Amino acid sequence: MGLHSKDKLVLRGGELDSLPVLENAWLLIESGLIKDFGKMDSIPSHISNLSSQISAEGRYIFPSWCDSHTHIVFAASREEEFAMKIQGKSYEEIAAAGGGILNSANKLQKASEDELFESASVRLKQMIRLGTGAVEIKSGYGLTTESEIKMLRVIRRLKDQFPIPIKATFLAAHAYPAEFKNNHQGYIDLIINEMLPQIAEEKLADYIDVFCEKGFFSVGEADQVLKAGAKYGLKPKVHANQLSVSGAVEVSVQNRAISVDHLEESDEETIRTLRNADTIVTLLPSCSFYLGIPFADAKSFIRADLPVALATDYNPGSTPSGNMNFVVSLACIKMKMFPEQAINAATLNGAAAMEMSEDYGSITVGKKANLFITKPMPSIAYLPYSFGETQIETVILNGEIYNG
Ligand code: NIG
Ligand code: FE
Fold first, then answer.
1. 239 lines ligand 1 (CB under 6 A)
2. Measuring CA to CA, how many Å separate 357 from each of 5, 163, 372?
3. Which residues face 207 on adjacent strands?
4. What fold characterizes domain 65-352?
5. Which residues pair with 239 in a beta bridge?
6. Distances from the Cα of 378 to the Cαs of 20, 59, 195, in angstroms?
């Protein structure tokens, strides 16, 4: 299933409704690529006689999830904030009380590159077992030149050592370090004049991101950072409208963002701005679930013909989970997306939000064979319906069974 044609690189609005499926089918993989597929009743004998075969009887073959928004390089979990949340403290209140991003940054600055690599590897393996076959990872818990580069080097090691494609996003504009609390321009200058040139020199990042939000980076500050990134060829993927409608979407679109992510808050103006752009709208429902903030208005975005993607936002503060199956379930249950829409948003559109939909995100001849085979299931909708349980039986990456 997920048999989109080679030229369909992103699905907008109503296009998300259609998830082409072939029942009783065979699929041929050669040299790590999807070589061909068809119906069992017309399988060519040279294919049915191949020695290396996997039976998928009663099962479904999905294209791997493409998780286009994560922060999986971090030094420590933050479950002490969990109790504060249960007591009713908001994300902003916890950050103001010494929790939040600055807490993660303190811990990350003290951790070694090896320690960070080891713990991120454990998370990434778990995500792969849960069906993720392409991922984007952000920096943003370093907040000093040294530690931002340390994070990006960890992401590069993950790229080198894991069998899935990984994109790296530079997110030093995640929070103001304490020493720059009253000197925002000083930190922005540090990002622009010191961090960016070194990162570009070592080719450590593919994208640039800013947490554009009240109490974090203003629209004008975001604009400066995004424009500086563009000078080094880093396209924007922006944290926008998570806690308030802030003008973040507008500044992202003006800077030709690949994606705007979150959008738990939006209004008519947000939608109007996005209608005139190619920017992908990446929704992160497990963040809403965990923080208890509103779920994004996916239906309005789809009705407005926008390209909606889904991702986890896996991070220690707002989404301590990298489970795309749960994201797809939440998208259906809480944002009222149909299973077909949610699956398309979590596969082809996720790949598009990482500019890799030519090679990933659907079962299409010539694309990489990054797939998973489910347990026996009565229908595709059973996967999001049976939330909290994994339906994944076999993970295939580059045509090989993954046993990591
Ligand atoms: O996407 N909003 C900004 N960044 C993360 C949370 C970071 C944190 O709390 O550590 C997010 O939700
Ligand atoms: Fe995030």
1. yes
2. 11, 17, 17
3. 169, 235
4. TIM Barrel (3.20.20)
5. 211, 261
6. 17, 8, 52
C-beta of 290 in contact with ligand 1 (< 6 A):
no
Residue 162 tokens read as: 């894991």
DSSP string, 277-304: S--EEEE-HHHHHHHTPPPP-HHHHHHT
**Residue owning the nearest CA to atom 9 of ligand 1:** 317
72 pLDDT more than 80 = yes
Calculated CA dihedral for residues 43, 44, 50, 53, nearest 10 degrees: -10
Domain definitions of the chain by residue range: 65-352
Rounded to the nearest integer, the mean pLDDT of the chain is 96
Length of the chain: 404
**Any ligand 1 atom below 6 A from CB of 67:** no
- What mean pLDDT comes out for the span 49-73? 96
- Cα separation, 274 vs 280, in Å, equals 8
Identity of residue 314: Y
Q: Which ligand is nearest to the CA of 137?
A: 2
At 344, which helix (H) or strand (E)? helix 339-346
At 131, give phi and psi (nearest 5°).
105, 0
162: DSSP letter? S
Report CA-CA distances (Å) from 166 to 3, 134, 137, 214, 237: 23, 6, 7, 30, 15
pLDDT tens track for 90-104? 888 898 888 899 999
Distance of CA 65 to the CA centre of its chain: 9
Among 315, 319, 321, residue to substitute to test ligand 1 (most atoms within 8 Å of Cβ): 315
**Cα 156 from Cα 390, distance rounded (Å):** 29
Sequence-ordered list of residues with C-beta below 8 angstroms from that of 378, at least 6 positions apart, any chain? none
Report the 10 Å Cβ neighbour count for 94: 20
Whether 279 contacts 252, CB under 8 Å: yes
Residue 242: nearest ligand to its CA?
A: 1
Give the 3-state secondary structure of residue 166: strand
- 40 DSSP 8-state letter: G
Indicate if the pLDDT at residue 336 is higher than 90: yes
CA distances, 276 to each of 10, 173, 224, 229, 345 (Å): 16, 26, 22, 23, 20
DSSP assignment, residue 217?
B
Q: Does the C-beta of 141 come closer than 6 Å to ligand 1?
A: no
